[in-house]
């Protein structure tokens, strides 16, 4: 007898929208930190500017990425 495929009924920790927002903000923060280090800033300055940029990016991406499920 063939096995029936199991349905994935586990709830996910993050939605796809939240995952995209988090990934994009991490990308912005790490790019900002990398550019700060490349310009001669120290590690502490790079972490502070990267964190501030990531926080701002979260606010920006939260507003520009819709959560209506594609319906218009």
Mind explaining what this structure looks like?
The protein contains two helices and no strands. It is mostly helical and 72 residues long. The N and C termini lie far apart (46 Å). The model has no long low-confidence stretch (mean pLDDT 89).
How are the SSEs ordered, and which strands pair?
Layout: H1 16-38, H2 43-64
DSSP helix fraction: 55-70%
Shape: elongated
Class per helix and strand makeup: mainly alpha
- pLDDT averaged over residues: 89
Task: List key phrases describing it.
2 helices; 72 residues; mainly alpha; 0% strand
Give a concise summary.
Keywords: Membrane, Transmembrane, Transmembrane helix. The chain has 72 residues and is mainly alpha-helical.
């Amino acid at each position: 007898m063939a096995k029936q495929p199991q349905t994935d009924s586990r709830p996910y920790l993050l939605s796809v929208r939240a995952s995209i927002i988090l990934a994009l903000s991490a990308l912005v923060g790490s790019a900002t930190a990398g550019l700060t280090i490349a310009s001669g800033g120290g590690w502490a300055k790079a972490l502070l500017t990267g964190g501030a940029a990531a926080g701002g990016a979260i606010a920006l991406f939260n507003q520009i990425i819709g959560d209506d499920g594609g319906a218009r």
